[in-house]
Amino acid sequence: MTRIITALIGIPALIYLIKFAPIPIFAVVLFAAMLVCLYEYFSLTEIQKIPSLTVAGYAFASLIFASFYFVKINFALWF
Question: What's the whole-model pTM score?
Answer without folding.
Answer: 0.75
